[in-house]
Design goal:
Layout lengths: L3 H4 L1 E3 H4 E7 L2 E6 L5 H4 L4 E3 L1 E2 L2 E7 L5 E6 L2 E2 L11 H6 L10 H9 L11 E8 L2 E9 L3 H10 L1 H6 L12 H4 L2 E9 L11 E13 L45 E10 L8 H14 L4 E6 L4 H16 L2 H4 L5 H6 L11 H11 L3 H15 L2
The structure holds acetyl coenzyme *A.
Acetyl coenzyme *A binds next to strand 13, helix 9 and helix 10.
Length: 376
């Protein structure tokens, strides 16, 4: 006989169904990759048979609706009770997600807001064949951006391992350090009955670290404060700690490292070049930003490493000096002991690196990829 906990337990990744909907159509439905941070390490929910947790999103403005349905609920016996799902999910979704389906449907069918555009400002339009994509960006201090983030932050828990939602209760000064990018597909005409031509595909958050330059004269060590430890990544090297009394701590006028913190393309849009388009658009934004000295990535996973390597390499290959990079085989074949420094022109490379704002370790990796690709 089956253990009674088995028949009353469901795998939470299977139970959760995420959909992108328009007033008259479900465009896509998919499951999360991870739910352990929400439902526990086992990724299992106790107390239901036929459980379905529907997180339905209006495909453009990402207003969510949460529906929990099941065939049978475990009758509470003593201390054994079914998992109380609503309070668990309340921490991850805005209050409006808990309204009735009829209210949600009426709201998304309301065509009076047909001029809706994504939050922030339009940064880039990308044409690929017959498809048009738009990248929008805004500061996290912008209320419209915050509202959007409250709706979609659960996606970080669903798709990025160890990803955690941002804390929106920070001070305005702290929120201003974050830029949020949104990737949308835009259809020229709104699909029949749809109030918007925009379909949400993914988003990314980027944090600015200022690069501290010591004031003159230097302050005494007794007044220095340690920089908080950031999570490790291949880009990690620490800039000196900020000084309490340094006059140029005004973040807005400071040279920065801009670090991609969270980056998600929804499953229906993966493996179609959308991650690359989005990454390059974000990269272009910070290349054009005079305050950004380096573009880095926080804790990239293997898939993001691949995406970044390929796109950084493609970008650098457009630079004639980089493309002409060769190993001086005569020198390298004769070399005994350590490889001579003049095997490649390190000075020219450093100029390219700083021009493209790529962090040293990532740059070294891409240079290596380029040199290896030249070996017959
Ligand atoms: N047809 C088929 N394959 C294609 C096409 C196409 N038209 N275009 C690109 N591809 C291939 C690429 O060559 C690449 O192949 P590879 O995996 O063998 O290298 C692959 O598809 C992925 O490239 P893109 O399509 O440009 O990227 P994608 O849109 O799939 O995005 C990403 C990749 C961001 C990792 C996405 O899968 C995702 O969001 N995953 C979930 C969340 C996540 O892991 N985020 C990164 C966490 S790290 C961080 O946040 C800093």
């Amino acid at each position: 006989m089956a253990d009674s906990t088995d028949i009353w337990s469901v795998e939470s990744n299977d139970a959760v169904h995420i959909s992108l909907v328009t007033p008259n159509k479900t465009l896509h439905t998919f499951h999360p990759k991870f739910t352990y941070s929400i439902f526990g390490e086992e990724e299992s929910i106790f107390g239901y048979q036929g459980l379905k947790i529907n997180v339905k999103y209006h495909a453009s403005d990402m207003r969510p609706l949460l529906q929990i349905t099941y065939n049978k609920k475990f009758p509470a016996v003593g201390t054994t009770e079914p998992t109380d799902l609503k309070p668990i999910l309340e921490a991850y979704l805005p209050k409006t997600a808990f309204e009735k389906q009829s209210i949600f449907e009426a709201a998304i069918s309301d065509t009076s807001n047909s001029n809706w555009t994504p939050p922030g400002e339009l940064w880039k339009t990308i044409q690929s064949g017959s498809k048009t994509f738009e990248v929008w960006k805004g500061s996290l201090a912008d209320l419209a951006v915050q509202q959007m983030l409250k709706r979609i932050q659960i996606l970080v828990s669903f798709f990025i391992e160890a990803g955690t939602p941002l804390d929106l209760r920070e001070t305005e000064e702290a929120l201003k350090r974050w830029t949020v990018f949104f990737l949308y597909q835009k259809t020229t005409e709104a699909t029949a009955g749809t109030s918007s031509p925009y379909t949400f595909m993914g988003y990314s958050t980027v944090y600015r670290y200022f690069m501290y330059q010591p004031p003159t004269p230097p302050v005494s060590p007794a007044t220095t404060k340690k920089e908080p430890v950031q999570s490790a990544s291949r880009d990690d090297f620490k800039f000196p700690a900020p000084e309490d009394n340094a006059p140029e701590l005004q973040f807005s006028s400071h040279p920065c490292r801009s670090r991609i913190s969270q980056f998600v393309i929804l499953p229906p849009f993966q493996k179609g070049g959308n991650g690359s388009r989005f990454y390059n658009a974000i990269f272009d934004n910070f290349l054009a930003d005079p305050k950004t000295i380096e573009i880095t990535v926080e804790d990239p996973n293997e898939a993001f490493d691949d995406l970044r390597d390929l796109n950084d390499l493609a970008r650098l290959r457009l630079n004639p000096t980089f493309a002409a990079l060769r190993i001086n085989t005569k020198v390298s074949l004769k070399a005994k002991g350590p490889v001579p420094r003049d095997i490649i022109d390190t000075e020219a490379l450093e100029k390219i690196r700083t021009k493209f704002k790529i962090a040293p370790r990532q740059f070294a990796r891409v240079v290596e990829m380029q040199l290896l690709s030249l070996i017959p």
